[in-house]
Design a protein that fits this description.
alpha/beta
Amino acid sequence: MLPPLSVVDLKGRPLTLRPSPGKLLILNLWATWCAPCREELPSLQRLAAKLDPTRFELLLLSVDDDEHLVREFLIDRKVRLASLLDPGMSVADDILGIRVFPSTYFVSPDGRIVVLMEGAREWDSAEILAQIEAMHPVR
């Protein structure tokens, strides 16, 4: 189970991250210093455009400490995904035990971690889109 996560938004305000009711949470942990992370961001943006927002929520969680750096990085690369920060990597290290960046968690609406995909992907490929759709079928 994924516990509520204490994170901050890109303005430095603390908040608690939980899965949204009825939605599969796709939580991508990344960093500006991680080359594979940077390479996969455009495909995550394209994936978000293909997903039904009533069934899926895609969030980026950067482990960078500087919200200004992350904000400017995303603006510069025209990435418009919802983004949060894990300064000090307390969530990544202490709660999730991240071994590889990027890592992407798929979390059911009830908080169960359904799948963990470590490493970069081409997120908008037909194969991965089908896998994601199968994790949270229409009822």
